[in-house]
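Postdoc handover notes: sequence design on the structure in folder B. Input tokens:
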């Protein structure tokens, strides 16, 4: 059995990681101590874990775990792909680590991969913090004519990360009316309609106050919009401007009265923004939980159907207890199969002190059929003790250590172009047609071999040693086969399951062409592979364990959903809904008094992560909403 030693992870190391984008594909394989890929591993045991910052030692402060993607091709056995995984939405350094669950308690982890998440494409302008809604007039007092002061605008990506640090240009401030037909537009100090500010390194600082002109035009008690339009020549796609609504009054006293109302409006807008985000997040969490329940139900049904294919029926009640007892019984049955006597090679193997040493030929292959194992072992008797190495240097080292007494075969000295094609059909099959009907069940000897390790190297070794040697039932069938084959092509060596050999030159008979009984081979015989029943039990146990985990998962997500749905009807939640309705009604009345149209103030507030103290984690959007709701409930 191969022992997993490490995880090998391949990915595009030159890729960039823009916030909210998609990671490049990660290709993971489990390697044994001789760097061979271990196959037939359940994909559910391979996971990708990610967290913000850099973990140290065995500490893994995991924020999110990904499962591997479905295998697209049977040839990918042993390789596990992690495709289309979402990059975190917040910039910064993140750690990624892949794990292989060897059993319930032991986990094999890869080296940590540190990735730097960078901002995505520029999308909009936003200030550090949203300013209050201005209420201004055109009187002599400057304070009453000031729209904004000390405002700093930044380029943000879709996820409100600062970006565009390499962009240079300008920001143009203008005043517009929601009513396109309105021609009476307020002007800035100096009777100008626009002001430019320099834009550098992703930001524009409005250092000087933006002030309206004294006696500026404008309709009394009217809403206008202060628009900051970015002009950045290097950008192909224009950015969304930043818009700030304000109220204009011709009367100073009225302006002072309305300033109080605008402050109340801003406070209500912020509070409503918190409530709406909270309720939206709650609803999104319910939908996510229902999706999790649906996925868990689908998984449970799928695994139950897979178990039926193995003739395993499960009861509707006390399922977990039944599955646990069944797993225990299958493990006992599996142990019983392993304890049954089976053919083994008793020839001592050569110590593998060097990774370039594969071992003795007798230990490199296994054969299930006893008769085939006997005749093939006898046919290769002179080679069974030979040690195969990857390099001539390793072979020479063994030769020197044993004073030349040990046979060695270095693979780098084999001329591989003359090796047989393992997919070549038998000689009686030519161009997809049967030239004659053979008897005796002929099969290439190499097709009866299984290789526990180093499959490609072993195919090279046995391709050279066996060539196109064929196994057939008995001597009569072998003679018939040879007589027909030589009519159309060269006939390779034929071995019979009864122990006879017809050489490729046609010679047979005599003691040198007759295999002795198995016990006369003195243990120099290919061992038998693990019984197929053992592998069947392994598959059933694995499916049962997966099903048990699926049942537990389904029960957990159902309990979480039920608990959350009940929490939505608590007096506390009903009170919050009532408070939101009252605040929305108050906001509508204040905006009517101000003469303002229903504004986007709440929507703007929802763009600000600080409003809800959103967690700065790499959790994907759904998970982030879930964590936010938990935080709000606390």
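Designed sequence:
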């Amino acid at each position: 059995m191969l022992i997993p030693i490490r995880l090998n992870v391949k990915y595009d190391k030159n890729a960039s990681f823009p916030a909210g984008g998609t990671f490049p594909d990660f290709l993971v394989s489990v390697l044994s101590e001789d760097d061979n890929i271990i196959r037939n591993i359940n994909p559910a045991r391979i996971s990708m874990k990610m967290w913000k910052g850099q973990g140290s030692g065995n500490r893994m402060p995991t924020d999110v775990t990904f499962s591997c993607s479905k295998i697209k091709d049977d040839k990918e056995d042993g390789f596990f792909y992690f495709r289309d995984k979402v990059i975190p939405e917040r910039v910064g350094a993140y750690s990624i680590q892949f794990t292989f669950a060897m059993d319930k308690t032991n986990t094999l982890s890869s080296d940590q991969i540190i990735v730097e998440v960078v901002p995505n494409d520029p999308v909009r302008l936003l200030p550090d913090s949203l300013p209050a809604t201005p209420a201004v007039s055109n009187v002599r007092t400057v304070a009453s004519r000031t729209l904004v002061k000390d405002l700093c605008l930044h380029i943000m990506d879709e996820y409100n990360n600062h970006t565009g640090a390499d962009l240079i240009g300008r920001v143009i401030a203008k005043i517009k009316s929601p009513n396109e037909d309105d021609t009476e537009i307020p002007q800035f100090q100096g009777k100008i309609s626009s002001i430019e500010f320099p834009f550098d390194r992703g930001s524009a600082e409005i250092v000087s106050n933006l002030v309206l002109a004294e006696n500026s035009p404008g309709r009394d008690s009217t809403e206008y919009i202060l628009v900051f339009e970015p002009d950045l020549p290097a950008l192909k796609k224009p950015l969304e401007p930043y818009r700030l609504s304000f109220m204009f009054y011709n009367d100073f006293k009225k302006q002072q009265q309305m300033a109080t109302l605008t402050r109340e409006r801003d406070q209500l807008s912020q509070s409503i923004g918190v409530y709406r985000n909270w309720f939206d997040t709650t609803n999104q969490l319910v939908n996510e939980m229902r999706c999790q329940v649906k996925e868990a139900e689908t998984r449970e049904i799928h695994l139950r159907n897979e178990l039926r294919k193995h003739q395993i029926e499960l009861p509707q009640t006390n399922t977990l207890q039944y599955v646990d007892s069944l797993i225990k019984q299958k493990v006992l049955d599996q142990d019983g199969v392993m304890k049954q006597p089976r053919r083994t090679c008793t020839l001592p193997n050569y110590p593998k002190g060097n990774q370039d040493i594969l071992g003795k030929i007798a230990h490199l292959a296994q054969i299930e059929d006893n008769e085939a194992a006997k005749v093939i072992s006898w046919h290769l008797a002179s080679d069974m003790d030979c040690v195969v190495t990857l390099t001539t240097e390793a072979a020479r080292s063994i030769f020197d250590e044993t004073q030349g007494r040990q046979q060695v075969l270095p693979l780098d000295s084999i001329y591989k172009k003359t090796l047989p094609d393992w997919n070549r059909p038998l000689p009686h099959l030519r161009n997809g047609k049967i030239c004659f009907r053979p008897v005796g069940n002929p099969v290439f000897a190499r097709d009866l071999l299984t290789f526990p390790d180093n499959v490609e190297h072993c195919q090279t070794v046995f391709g050279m040693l066996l060539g196109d040697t064929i196994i057939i039932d008995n001597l009569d069938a072998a003679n018939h086969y040879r007589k027909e084959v030589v009519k159309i092509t060269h006939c390779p060596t034929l071995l019979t399951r009864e122990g006879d050999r017809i050489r490729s030159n046609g010679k047979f008979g005599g003691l040198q062409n007759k295999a002795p009984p198995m016990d006369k081979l003195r243990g120099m015989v290919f061992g038998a592979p693990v019984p197929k029943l053992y592998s069947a039990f392994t598959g059933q146990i694995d499916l049962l364990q997966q099903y048990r985990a699926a049942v537990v998962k389904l029960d957990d997500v159902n309990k979480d959903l039920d608990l959350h749905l009940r929490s939505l009807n608590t007096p506390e939640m009903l009170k919050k809904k009532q408070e939101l309705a009252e605040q929305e009604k108050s906001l509508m009345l204040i905006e009517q008094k101000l003469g303002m149209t229903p504004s986007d103030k709440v929507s703007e507030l929802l763009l600000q992560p600080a409003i809800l103290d959103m967690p700065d984690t790499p959790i994907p959007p759904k998970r982030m909403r879930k964590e936010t709701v938990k935080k709000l409930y606390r």
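Context for whoever picks this up: The radius of gyration is 39 Å. Don't rerun without checking with the PI first.
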